[in-house]
Amino acid sequence: MPRGRLTEQFSRCPSGLVVAPPGFGKTALLAQAARAHPGPVTWYQARPGAGRRELLTALGYPPDAPAELVGASGAIQQMPRRRDTGDGGTAGRLIVIDDMHLLSSAAQALAVRLGQLALPHPLVLIGTRPSAELPVASVEASSATVVNADALRFRSWEVEQLFPRLYGTALRPGIAVPLVRATGGRAAMLRLFGRAVAADPDAGQEQILADGSFGRAYLEREVLAPLPGRLGRFLTETCLLNRLTADACHALTGRADSAEMLYSLAHEHGVLRAAPDGHTYVAEPLLRACLRARLTRALTDVELARLRGRIGAGSGGRQDPPPAAVRRRLGNADWADPLRAVVAGTPDVFPGRRDGRVTEAGAGSSAALLVQGVAAALSGDGTAGDTVRRALAEATEDALVALSGQLVRVVLAVLAAGPAGPVPYPELQRIAYDAERLDLLWLSRAARCLLGLGPHPEDAGQPVVVLEECTRLGDAEGAALAVSAVCLRSVWRGRPGIGELEEAVRRFRALGWGTLEAWGRAALAVVEAAHELPDAEQRAAQAEAFARSAGVPGARALAIGAMAVATPDAANRAELQEAAWSTARSARLPVSGLRSWLTALASPAGDGTAATGRTRGGGQHTTASPRAHEAPSPPGLTVRCLGGFEFTLAGRAHDWAKLRPRAQALLRLLAVRAGQAVHRDHLLLAFWDGVTTPSTLHNLQVTISSLRSFLEPERPRGGSRLIARQGDSYRLVLAPGDVSDVAAFERAVRDGRRSRAQRRPEEAAEAFRTALEHYGGELLPGDGQAEWVVADRERLRREAAGAAVALAEIRLGQNRPVEAADAAERCLEIDGHRDAAWRVLIQACDTAGLAADSARARSGYSAMLASLGLPPSGVLPHPM
Questions:
Q1: Domain ends where: 559, 582, 604?
Q2: pLDDT per residue over 723-741, tens digit each?
Q3: Which residues does UniProt assign to DNA binding (predicted)?
């Protein structure tokens, strides 16, 4: 099952560590990361007791490398850490070391250090079991990514996807949550359960889970047997405690080191799981059943009864409260009731509030503060985040309010950032998982809905899955919030849907949630105005009136913005826009946030109904943008010719099969010279053998005309703004904001040369670095050896190689050898015969103390000279 949220972290770090007990899927995650790596991969499966020499030899390092990496005292020397290049490093190689815990101590230390070496060493991913000797803290401090057992655990919603995909059978409704609780989300246990279900389909999944025999042998062999004797005895002696704390274990066993034992079992061996409070630990139910079976075998019935009596007397009968006991009370109402009241826009109905204010007795409580923050957020008040932060500061001992407040804080941050902002997946995953553990399933479902806002395929369908769950459970409120998440997902993808928003508004109205209905009506009005529906102006005015009567100024500001989008009069539109900004400011809603949401909702691509041709007043089909009534402007254009051809207009790709091959080639030539005038003689020479006759001139004009019609079908004849004619020349127009990689590359090279000539090395280096970012490969490789492209291709290749070697020389002169080596290797990738690049690479490796890499560079330089029939250079010493 793809786990992109975890594997993508490794692509942005110098090294990665996957540390978890057996059975959590470390090897599977490493394999996914290896498959996603664009470069070569070296996989090393550790053998018990293997030393440093075997490790280095297996990874392709010279056998004498330990002398270079380890000082005379045997301690690892401090080496410059490789910076994050985002592409697997210059060498492009990924090293995976699985089961590192089997290596000798010295080899383990060396394996960890390999991930911190300077370029051009590869990326390193390590899989290992937890141990007291593993320096996890120092690995994290070195900017490495550490994935632990909690991150690897499968959640209930992931398990529901996993079983049909892996085992070909669906889980029974409602069994995913108890299955994850019983197994701790451990991959191996889930696999064993799947095998047991497949082996005996008539037994029933609930019965197989209740029996628990499918995983006992595995737990005994892989989890309990490897534990040190004292930890195994301690775990067995305390297994009758459902929740383990240092005080309870000390009272039961008399061990003064109970706190240290619990910490070791949780963080060094991964057998226990720490609760959110950091002081309470729990064992998986199936593991606890194994331990209790051990204890039953070791004690007589009388001793066992006496032990249970001691536990009951010491806890006062409160050792294992039902999960619902974590729910706190606010006055006489459950937490969900005031939340429903606030969402419905009537917060005064629950205890603790009078006349729209929290009473003094409840004003300081974390729950009351959180309710205030939610109410402020729903009205559009920009200060809601401050109130939520105060609630979180007060909720140190209230898990429910703390998790709810954290989710509200994330929601506010996501909405404030808008569709262009990031979605904090790790925090949402943790909130969803902790809420599920505390039996707050409605809160877990709410967190899961937001996971669908991102690009990860495994999360894309979460809002729909949650909607189906809520429908099955009869949770109308949860279903309405899930529909809201579906709408947000469509906006995040740039395709706000009219049908989805109409469904959300219908559900809000049925529940009596006037506040959210006001927001839904306003958002729907913006989308309808963007698509120029016949009654868009009237619908926007109705949305504004509803938001005003509901007392939701933020939604009213959005509705006024919809009125501005819908009106065809420019003066009236400007007046309405100013009214929208003024309303937002009076509601303490950031104007920039309102602008971003208006832009996102007014995206011209809509759901199928809107995008395929709703019309205004029965006229022709239109998908006009909010700026359709303003002066027309050139469409957004992106042209890429380096490394391949890409031509997108206003984010839209084209079906090139509808265009003749000669017209396509002519467009590519204009794209190479984007922004520059190309004389018709040059075009005739390239595509009509240079023959200038009335016939060839006519063919050229017809080809240009077909290009214009193909690229801008909506514009009238003679109204093209993309391909302009200047006398006898033609030009592909680049408007402000348009992108051409060739133009950007050439401009950066010119800036670098000018800055270097003026002795401004840092500016020159930055310009050359920018040029290399734009150089994605040779010019139009798909056009082969066509005469019109070969000369430009070779010219740009030489300029790219020259920019790379110039950057390398500047960085070497600034005593930054690692970056110099990086740039020199980039030059050699472009032009392997560039003498200056080989010399800079060797000097940079020598300066950085990378003897092995220097030796490889010298060997490569000699091979290059030999391929040209030249003797080795006498300027630099050679090992031969």
A1: 604
A2: 888 888 889 988 877 889 9
A3: 629-734
**Residue 157 in contact with residue 441, Cβ under 8 Å?**
no
A 10 A CB-CB count for 710 gives: 17
Residue 150: pLDDT over 60: yes
What are the tens digits of pLDDT across the range 351-373? 333 333 333 335 456 777 777 77
Report pLDDT digits (tens) over 641-655: 998 888 888 767 677
* Stretch 191-211: mean pLDDT: 85
**Residue 310 pLDDT class (50, 70, 90 cuts):** confident
Residue with tokens 């010298």: 858
The number of folded domains in the chain is: 6
3-state secondary structure 85-144: CCCCCCCCCEEEEECHHHCCHHHHHHHHHHCCCCCCCCEEEEEECCCCCCCHHHHHHCCC
pTM over 0.70: no
**Nearest of 329, 399, 395, 327 to residue 364 by alpha carbon:** 395
Indicate the residue among 137, 152, 167 that finishes a domain: 152
Cβ-Cβ contacts under 8 Å for 647 (sequence gap 6 or more): 637, 638, 639, 640, 654, 667, 671
Question: Residue 804 falls within a domain, yes or no?
Answer: yes
Q: Which of 367, 365, 364, 386 is nearest to 377 (CA)?
A: 386
Alpha helices in 246-383 (DSSP H): 246-253, 258-263, 285-298, 301-315, 336-344, 366-379
- Measured N-to-C along each axis, helices 399-417 and 384-394 cross at an angle, to the nearest 10 degrees, of 160
Question: What is the domain range of residue 62?
Answer: 4-68+92-152
Mark whether 843 and 760 lie in a shared domain.
Answer: yes
CA distances from 489 to 367, 461, 476, 626, 867 (A): 29, 10, 20, 21, 57
692 and 589 co-located in one domain = no
Q: What is the per-residue pLDDT for 671?
A: 92
